[in-house]
Amino acid sequence: MHRFPHAAAAAILCMALSLIAIPLLAGTQDFVLVNDTGETINNLYMSETSNNDWEEDVLGRDVLGDRERLNMTFEGRSACLWDIKAVNRDGDSLEWTAINLCKVSVVVLICDDDECWAEFE
User: Fold this and answer.
1) How many CB atoms lie within 10 A of CB 62?
2) What's the chain's average pLDDT?
3) Are strands 69-72 and 115-120 parallel, antiparallel or unpaired?
4) Which of these ranges, 5-9, 38-42, 96-100, has the smallest mean pLDDT?
5) Among 10, 54, 85, 86, which residue is least crowded by beta carbons within 10 Å?
6) Structure pTM?
7) Mean pLDDT, to the nearest integer, of 50-77?
8) Side by side, which strands form the sheet with 106-112?
9) What is the 3-state secondary structure (H, E, C) of 51-108?
10) How far apart are CA 34 and CA 39, in angstroms?
11) Regarding the domain delimited by 27-120, which CATH topology (the fold level of the hierarchy) does it fall under?
12) With 0-12 CB in 10 A as exposed, 13-18 as middle and 19+ as buried, what is 8?
């Protein structure tokens, strides 16, 4: 005899709902950043385009080597337009502005000779 006959069904329902909810928690702005600049990125900053200040270094103590990828995830943010600033070990920096992260899933930072740009997928 089961003491709580509906407990098992409730537990299964809760597990099913939690599996469904996981993708809904992902930020609309989540994307993959690809470094194709030819250099290691030592510091990486992101900021909402409407914000005049760069936020914390996304990499912390890590670096993003040339041709490496980084999964960028967002929580609790609604802005779509973001700026990215990449700094190499010499302190040289590059900036890309007003990237609509709600419409792209991959951002590739590219440098060739003396020109740099971003490509989006």
Assistant:
1) 12
2) 83
3) unpaired
4) 5-9
5) 10
6) 0.76
7) 94
8) 69-72, 31-36, 106-112, 115-120
9) CCCCCCECCCCCCECCCCEEEECCCCCCCCEEEEEEECCCCCEEEEEEEECCCCCEEE
10) 12
11) Immunoglobulin-like (2.60.40)
12) exposed
